[in-house]
Amino acid sequence: MSDIRRALRRRALASLAGFAALAAAPKTLVGATRGMGALDRFEAVDAPSAVPAALQAALEPLRNRAVLVNFWATWCEPCRAEMPALAGLDAVEANLALLTVAVADREDDVRRFFAARRLDPLVVADPDQVIARAWDVRFLPTTFLLDASHRPRHRVRGELDWNDRAVRERVMTLVAPPNDPAPH
User: Fold this and answer.
1) pLDDT tens-digit series, residues 106-143
2) Which CATH class is domain 34-175?
């Protein structure tokens, strides 16, 4: 079989896998974002019970910075659509970092995706979905907003327009450190 045929076959199988995952997802998650305003999509969350070692290692150099942890895959069209805006937010906000978790994806596909778009986010591979399961991610894309102490504060399920000014303001408000009372 030629390389082109193999590539086309892999792409077709990846698309079918994405459709199968969507069909198997609970209906409440499939339609979870329809009819909701962008700012209504920020859900408060508790910290996960475990932070897998690979994710912990990736977060370590980002100490004292708020972090967007985006669970995504190259075969997920909404994930692909929102990634440039997420990377752009990371680029313009000094106190905010983007950490992507490539769920059930191949390293070569991830590398090609970012190279084609000239993006260079921090990527953690999660081919066996260990991190996704530990953080109860059942829908792609899913993005967690971590404060500067790396405690998850909010989650957004589904694609979001991260370029929207109100969304950016909300993100920066949610990840900002609380104001210390002025000394008397």
Assistant:
1) 999 999 999 999 999 999 999 999 999 999 999 999 99
2) alpha beta
Return the amino acid letter for 124. V
Q: Which residue has the tokens 């907003």?
A: 145
Half-sphere exposure of 96 toward its Cβ, with a 13 Å CA cutoff?
A: 24
The pTM assigned to this predicted structure is 0.77
Say if residue 141 is preceded by a cis peptide, omega within 30 of 0.
yes
* CA 114 vs CA 104, 107, 126, 136, 143: distances in Å: 16, 11, 16, 26, 18
Interatomic CA distance for residues 153 and 114, integer angstroms: 27
According to DSSP, the residues that pair with 173 across neighbouring strands are none
- Give Dmax (Cα) for the chain: 77
Query: What backbone torsions phi and psi does residue 122 show, to the nearest 5 degrees?
Result: -75, 130
Dihedral in degrees, nearest 10, Cα atoms 71, 72, 73, 78: 160
The domain limits of the chain are: 34-175
